Amino acid sequence: MVSPGGKMREKKGTKTRKPKGEPELPQEYVPPPLPLPGDDFAMPVREVVKPDNQLQLSEAELNDEVAKMLTANNPTAPRNVARYNVKERAYKFEPMVEQTITHYAADGWLLHRGADEARRQIDMDKMEQEAASKHQSDADRSLDRRDDGDEAPDDSRQLRNQFNFSDRAAQTINYPLKDRETFTEPPPTRTIQGSCTQWGIYDEYIKDLERQRVEEQLKSKGGRAKTQERQGQKHQEEGGQRKPDNPMQNPLLGQAAHILDRMANQNMFEEIAMDFKYWEDASDAVRPKEGSLLPLWKFGSDKARRRQVTSLCWNPLYNDMFAVGYGSYDFLKQASGLVNIYSLKNPSHPEFAYSTESGVMCLHFHPGTLLLDQACCRGDLCTHCLRKSTPPLGMFGPHCKMDQAHCLWALWGTHCLWKSTLPLGIFGPHCLWTRRSAAGALWGTPPLRIFEPDYLWTRLTAHAASKERNVWSGYTAGPSITQLGCRPVQGPNAGCRNSGTIKQAFWVGTEEGSIHKCSKAYSSQYLSSYQAHSLAVYSVKWNCIHHKTFLSASADWLVKLWDANQPRKPILTFDFKDAVGDIAWAPYSATVFAAVTDDGKVHVYDLYEDKLMPMCAQKVVKKAKLTKIVFNPKWPIILVGDDKGVVTSLKLSPNLRKQPKIQPGQKETLEQLEWAKLDHVIDVACRSDPEAMKEQAAAAAKAS
Amino acid sequence: MGDTAAIDETFKRLQSHKGVLGVIVANADGIAIRTTFDNELTVQYAALVTHFTVKSRSVVRKLDPENELKFLRIRSKKHEIMIAPEFERNCEYYLILVQDQAMGV
Q1: Which residue of A has its CA nearest to B72?
Q2: Has this prediction a pTM greater than 0.95?
Q3: pLDDT (mean) for A410-433
Q4: 2.130.10.10, 1.10.3210.10, 1.10.287.990, 1.10.10.10: which CATH number matches A294-657+667-703?
Q5: Do A247 and B86 touch (CB under 8 A)?
């Protein structure tokens, strides 16, 4: 159907409706009065609703007749539809176009009674009705029965699976599936990385070899040994598995700390170390007859402050190590003693330190070992092994009734026979116990066993026992020995004719000022005596190269150079204007020696250069008396000890260590040249003294 | 077991030397066991020095497996770090000393 689209809409209804805000309707329309309520027969109200946008027409227009015509054509249908005609192979306009438009369509649900579908539907309804009525009747019946026998109606019966039904009580429990999740702490992870290196492999191989060796040892041993070994191994295994040691208790740490200590010291005293090694006094080249001493390190400690340095000794094995003995030269005020062993590498602190009951008087290192002998004021002799810092290896005291008046002044050339770590015995042919007491008896030791209590002491010089009583009451009948000098055994002229007697002989200086030549072989008397000094002899030192001469130093300000064969008169005499504490020959030259005096000066002489004046006289300490001096056997330095407990090291300038140069082609050795130098000095000195000349000639004649 | 008292004494002495800024003993893991530095510096020194030392040891042992690093000395413009390591199996440790050499001289 085609709707032309009416312009008017009519609506029939009982209600009047006025849209809100609607402009007033035209005045010509008057609505009829509302019907009375309950008047069912009243005429329905007719209402005309005009839309707003309705075209307003004038009267003429309204009266104008509009012709409306129905056509069978669809006005919107296209008239020019072209389709491809396959037969003619060309597009052609469609002559016929669909003119039908469906505006609304609805399917109905009504059926015709006579149709098949309707009949089927009626049958189904009937069947359903029958089933429902049947069920109802059953329910009614069971309800009746329940009323009779109190039984619950089983309305589930209808729903049961009659083929595969099992009662609920007979069923097993079916656990329902459940999901349960928890979060744990993430397991600890660790990044481990390592690298395999050649040396790591090497280490493992070495360990494996060691293990195999132990296993083989186990196999080779049987029985009891096996169990013991097993235990041992167990221990070892425990040792292998045990936790790392506390490094603080590790002995290796101590060593490492020691090295660091030295390094820190090296940094602290860097300039001095450089001076020690490389600095030479340039002014020596300008002034050939003068030398100088360059102070290097000072060695002192709190403990040593109030003590006097009584002995200094370089270690023969290590050229930078030396021992300092502290004690007191005032024999009425004795205190405990101290031994410090220093190294030049660590000037601020001693490597080892020992305290002794009585003051130390003398120290001596065993050649080639780290054994240190020390002699104490009371007459004790101890031996320390420096590798172990614990108690002394041996202690000796004179066997007879000796009291604190016995003083051990000097030690020389003790030799030690070694077996494993304990000395079998000390063979001290030159070990001397001297007595500061009345008689001044000399005690020497024949080969002596340390650990046997009954050591033998031979008396060298016999003196009446009655005189040995009072030391301090003026009964000094015999000499009190203060110093002891022994000829160095080695050397070019040591093996001369009477070498036997030379080895046996030794020289002792006494407090009375005389020097005695003694021999172990003839213990009843002195071989000869030198009336050397008027006060106590403090030092007797043999020349290191020239084995016929020695020096003696005394409190009477003098140092004398002696020929061993001329006891009457010294070859040379040097006046130092103050008490001479100690003297030392230089190890490198036969003509150089150094002396220290109470006014704190060190004097160095080179007899070849100048016999009258020292090459160098230098004050090295303030307000202290110098007591000891030693030359280092290798380096050009000397150590000087004073009575305030300080040891000063000094470097010798080049002029103080002149040595003859060996010309190429020259046959003589350096030692022979040095020997000749001193011989020349002695020769000149003797020529100036006719008496000595005569004596020398007589001695020569006697010898021949 | 070593003589702890002697070691302690040596340590005290080390610290008293002129120019010594501090001493550290670190174990194998680079953890300081004993120190004279403050906490932060100690941790830094111990960790860094330990690594460096292990590297240095590797150098020595790679060149010759029978060789071993014994001592290490680092000289810088300001300080000198001295390290005495020990690589023994059960007692590995590093002993570190820092010294200001300008102060020492």
Answers
A1: A260
A2: no
A3: 32
A4: 2.130.10.10
A5: yes
